[in-house]
Every structure is written in C-alpha cells, then in structure tokens.
Design a protein that fits this description.
Layout: H1 6-19, H2 35-51, E1 56-62, H3 66-72, E2 78-83, E3 103-112, H4 123-128, E4 130-140, H5 151-156, E5 163-166, E6 182-187, E7 190-196, H6 204-217, E8 227-229, E9 237-238, E10 244-249, E11 254-258
Helix pairs in contact: 1-2
The protein binds 2-oxoadipic acid (OOG) and magnesium ion (MG).
Length: 259
C-alpha cells in the first residue's frame, strides 16, 4: 500500500501491529513524515484504538537515556500513548504470538495524583503532581525491521509501544532518591546492565516535565490517574522464548519477565 498521508500511514502501522509484520522506515517512502505529521499519525492510531474499545491510561517517554539514544541512534526523546491493552500482569509471559521481536527495558514509572499542564512545567512542579512511584519493565516491539528508524518513524510508531509490567511495590515520591534509585538488569541469571534514575534525563522528574511540556505544545495535558513510563534506563534486551529477565531496583522491588 502506498503511504502518502497521515491516514494511510496510520493504516499501515496498525496493520503491521495486527499482522505481526515488520517493514522498512516509512520516511524512506513518504517524505512528508516529519515530526509534526508523525505525532498526527500517532494520534490517529490512538483514535482508532479508542474507537475499537481501548482506553487511554497514560503516556510513555522514549529515548530519555543516553543508553537508549546511542543504541537506537536517535538522539532526541519522544512521547507515546499507553492504553489498557498494553498492560501485562506480573507473572504472565511475554505474548510472543502477538509480537514481532519484543525487547524488555527497565523503567521508573509515575502514577499522577493531579493533572499536569504545560508549558513551563519543571522537575519540581512535575514531582508535585506524582502520587506514587513504581518500577516497571516495558516490552517494546518496533514495527520497523531490526528496530531501524529515524525520529519521525518511531514517533509515528508510538515509540515502539507493545506491553508493560508494573512492579508490585509503590512508594510515595518523598520516600525515594530517584536520581540514585538503581536497577540491575538480569538475563538468564547474569547481570548484563545497570543504571540509576539519573540516567533518565538527569532525573526521571525531568522526563515527566518534558512529557507535560511536549503534550502542551500539541494542546494536550497529562491527567490525574495516568501512568507515565519515563523511559528505558538501560539498553533493552531481547525476550526470545525461554529468556528470563529480571529487573532489580534498590527500593522499588524486582520484576521478573519470562520470554
Ligand atoms: C524506541 C522506544 C523507546 C524507551 O524507553 O526509550 C522507549 C525503541 O527503542 O524502539 O520506549
Ligand atoms: Mg520504554
């Protein structure tokens, strides 16, 4: 199918997701895919998912750490939407039959107690809107072959969203030093990576502020009760069948994921 506008781009990316089909970068086929039209594609895909019965439950940030930016070779953060269909309950294996080439990455997750409306949100005002903090593991799954994309491509693809798992330990923000909150990433019994919250934009609250201000530039806001994934702290690891991934946090507990 020729991709010539926002509508056809949304149709193609949704079809790739539903058919578990990967493809080349859309920017190589449609030169009109810039940052603004890519967010319009993201919003159109969301509109169709909501029309099909899904519910918006928050937002995710992507590429907020150096580890992620260097690996993906895209050097700017972005936001995407979270819906209820993306929730994976703890203990449930990665649904391989729905996904193309899933990877897992540890994240610090906020649940908002108040709306957060940009522009001009700072890390401090962002933190004041946070009700609870959790550990999370995001399961990303790009619709682009080999996770090869440019910034507009990955924006249009809702930041490679697929699933996420929320940890079982919730803490109030004032109980934590999030810059120093560490995570060890374990694959099949070996620690393969580690990072602290400071890896995420210097502090995960900076990522939250960035999301609020980015949404404001599109006339949108973060809402009370929403979940915000602040972005992978480390590089992501493949979760092929049989792979056991563990994310072990200082104060936010551990999450185990079975591929
Ligand atoms: C893009 C999605 C990035 C994160 O936390 O950085 C993301 C990708 O790596 O495919 O979710
Ligand atoms: Mg992520």
């Amino acid at each position: 199918m020729a991709i010539t506008d926002i509508d056809s781009c949304a149709t193609e990316l949704l079809a790739c997701e539903e058919e578990r089909r990967d493809r080349g970068p859309i920017t190589e086929e449609w030169s009109g895919l810039d940052q603004a039209s890519a967010y319009a594609v993201q919003d159109e895909v969301l509109r169709r998912k909501v029309a099909a019965g899904q519910r918006v439950i928050g937002v995710k940030l992507g590429l907020t750490s150096r580890a992620k930016q260097q690996r993906m070779n895209v050097h700017a953060p972005l936001t995407g939407w979270l819906t209820d269909a993306m929730v994976l309950q703890a203990g449930v294996p990665v649904p391989q039959d729905q996904l193309i080439h899933p990877r897992a990455e540890p994240e610090i997750v906020f649940v908002l107690g108040a709306d957060l409306v940009g522009p001009g949100v700072t890390a401090a005002t962002a933190m004041a809107a946070v009700d609870m903090v959790y550990a999370g593991v995001e399961i990303i799954d790009s619709r682009y072959r080999d996770f090869r994309f440019t910034l507009p491509d990955v924006i249009a693809d809702n930041a490679s969203s697929a699933k996420f798992i929320l940890g079982g330990v919730g803490r109030r923000p004032e109980e934590l030093d999030l810059m120093m909150e560490a995570c060890l990433l374990e694959v099949n019994g070996a620690i393969v990576d580690s990072a602290t919250g400071g890896a995420v934009q210097g502090h995960p609250a900076e990522a939250l502020a960035l999301a609020a201000n980015d949404l404001a530039s599109r006339g949108l806001r973060l809402e009370a009760g929403w979940i915000v994934l602040t972005g992978g702290m480390t590089d992501a690891v493949f979760t092929t069948p049989g792979t056991n991934v563990g994310a072990h946090f200082t104060s936010l507990g551990s999450i185990a994921v079975r591929g």
